[in-house]
DNA sequence: GTCTATAAATAGATAGAC
DNA sequence: GTCTATCTATTTATAGAC
C-alpha cells in the first residue's frame, strides 16, 4: 500500500504527495462517507492544507473519482488467476487482504449505501461495480458447471446464487464494521466452503415466483 | 403508521405536529443519513421552520432518539406471535411490511453503516438492536430444535446460522436500495424457504477455525 | 507547490416578537 | 407554538503572496 508509484520521472515528489492525499482520502471517505468526509480532515492527515489539495484536484468530486480508481486497481488483481470453483475458494484470501486494509471495506460499504441515490457522484461507479461483480460470479459459476465441477443449475438459480453470495459478503462486512471482534475471515470462509459443498450436491437455491405458499410443513 | 397516538388529552394538536416531524425525520435520515440529513429539509417537509422543530426537540440528537424509538415500535410487533420455524417463515411478511415503508429500510441500513463508529449518537442503539436480533434468531432456532421441527445443531452452528441470516437480509436490502427493480420479497422468501429445508435435513453450516485448508478437492 | 486569508454557502442552535 | 432574525461553526473553493 505504501511506496506505490515511486516514480523516477520529472515530477516524482508531486506524485508522491498526490498518492498520499488519495491514500488518506480512502480512509476519510471510508470512515465518514463522501459527503461528510471533509477536505480539512484529509488535509490534516496528509500534513497539508485544504487549499493545497485543490491544486492536485479540481474539486472534491475529482478526488473521489481518483479514490475509486485507486480502490478498483487494488481489487481486480486476482480476478483472472482463478477459474470456476477455485475462484470462489480464492475469496478467502481476498477477504484476508480486505481485512488488512480496512479502509477499503469501510469505503465500499459506506459508498454502497450513500451512493444508492441516483444523484450521488459515485452512483454510476457503484452500480457498474455491482454489475461487474455479478458478471464475474455468474461466469465462474457457469465455468464450474461447464467443466463438471458441479452439477448443472438453471439460469435463475445461477443468478440467485450470485446475488446471495454478494449479499452474504456485504452482510458479514456490515457485522464486522459494527463489531470488529467478530472473525470475518472465519465467517466468510465457512460460507464459501459450505456453499461449494452445497453446489456439488446439486443444492442450488432456486427462486420460485409467488407460489401462494401453503405453510404445509408448519407443524 | 399514520394516526398513531391520536390523543384526546390536553395537548393533542401538539402531539400531532410532533408525530409529523418524526415521520419526516425517518425519511430524511433514511435518505441522507443522520449527519447529512438537515433540520431544514425535515422542516420543509413538515411545513414548518427549523426553529419550530427545536421547540419540540432540544437538539438534533434528541430527534434522532425519537426516530429510533418510533422505528423500534413498528418493528417489534410480530415478534411474539410466532415460535420456532413459524417465526422464520413470518420474515416474508415482515419483508412485505418493510417494502411498504421503504423509509425504515433506508434508515436501518444508513444508520447501521454510519453509526458503526463508537462516537456516533446512534451507535449504542444500533449495537443493542443487532444483539437483540441475534438473540431472537438464536432463540427461535433453538425452539425449533427443542420441539423436534429440525435436527439438533451445536451452539456454534446456531450462532453462525443467525449471523448468516442477518447478513443475507442486510445484503439483499443493500442490493434493493441500489436497484429498486429487484424483487426483494422473492429473494428473501427464497432464502427463508431454502434455509428451512436445509435445516430440516440437518445441513446447518458449522464454522471450523482455521483448519489449514488443503484445497484437496480442487480438481 | 504550499501557504494565509477569505469568500460564499449551509449547518445547528438561540433570542425575542407575536 | 411558530415565526423572523441572527449567531457561531464548518463546509468547499478561490485569490494572491512566497
TrEMBL record, chains A, B:
<feature type="domain" description="HTH tetR-type">
    <location>
        <begin position="15"/>
        <end position="75"/>
    </location>
</feature>
<feature type="DNA-binding region" description="H-T-H motif">
    <location>
        <begin position="38"/>
        <end position="57"/>
    </location>
</feature>
<keyword id="KW-0238">DNA-binding</keyword>
<dbReference type="InterPro" id="IPR009057">
    <property type="entry name" value="Homeodomain-like_sf"/>
</dbReference>
<dbReference type="InterPro" id="IPR036271">
    <property type="entry name" value="Tet_transcr_reg_TetR-rel_C_sf"/>
</dbReference>
<dbReference type="Pfam" id="PF00440">
    <property type="entry name" value="TetR_N"/>
</dbReference>
<dbReference type="InterPro" id="IPR001647">
    <property type="entry name" value="HTH_TetR"/>
</dbReference>
<keyword id="KW-0614">Plasmid</keyword>
<dbReference type="GO" id="GO:0003700">
    <property type="term" value="F:DNA-binding transcription factor activity"/>
</dbReference>
<dbReference type="InterPro" id="IPR050109">
    <property type="entry name" value="HTH-type_TetR-like_transc_reg"/>
</dbReference>
<protein>
    <submittedName>
        <fullName>DNA-binding transcriptional repressor AcrR</fullName>
    </submittedName>
</protein>
<dbReference type="GO" id="GO:0000976">
    <property type="term" value="F:transcription cis-regulatory region binding"/>
</dbReference>
Amino acid at each position: 500500500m505504501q511506496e506505490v508509484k515511486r516514480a523516477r520521472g520529472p515530477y516524482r515528489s508531486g506524485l508522491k504527495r498526490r498518492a498520499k492525499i488519495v491514500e488518506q482520502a480512502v480512509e476519510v471517505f471510508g470512515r465518514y462517507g463522501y459527503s461528510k468526509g471533509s477536505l480539512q480532515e484529509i488535509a490534516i492527515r496528509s500534513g497539508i492544507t485544504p487549499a493545497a489539495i485543490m491544486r492536485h484536484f479540481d474539486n472534491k468530486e475529482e478526488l473521489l473519482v481518483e479514490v475509486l480508481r485507486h480502490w478498483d486497481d487494488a481489487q481486480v488483481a486476482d480476478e483472472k488467476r482463478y477459474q470456476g470453483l477455485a475462484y470462489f475458494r480464492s475469496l478467502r484470501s481476498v477477504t484476508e487482504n480486505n481485512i488488512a486494509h480496512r479502509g477499503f471495506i469501510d469505503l465500499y460499504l459506506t459508498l454502497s449505501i450513500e451512493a444508492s441515490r441516483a444523484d450521488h457522484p459515485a452512483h454510476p461507479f457503484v452500480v457498474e461495480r455491482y454489475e461487474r461483480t455479478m458478471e464475474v460470479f455468474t461466469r465462474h459459476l457457469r465455468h464450474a458447471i461447464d467443466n463438471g465441477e458441479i452439477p448443472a443449475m438453471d439460469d435463475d438459480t445461477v443468478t440467485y446464487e450470485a446475488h446471495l453470495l454478494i449479499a452474504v459478503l456485504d452482510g458479514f462486512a456490515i457485522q464486522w464494521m459494527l463489531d470488529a471482534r467478530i472473525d470475518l475471515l472465519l465467517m466468510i470462509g465457512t460460507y464459501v466452503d459450505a456453499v461449494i459443498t452445497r453446489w456439488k450436491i446439486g443444492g442450488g437455491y432456486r427462486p420460485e415466483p409467488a407460489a401462494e405458499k401453503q405453510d404445509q410443513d408448519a407443524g
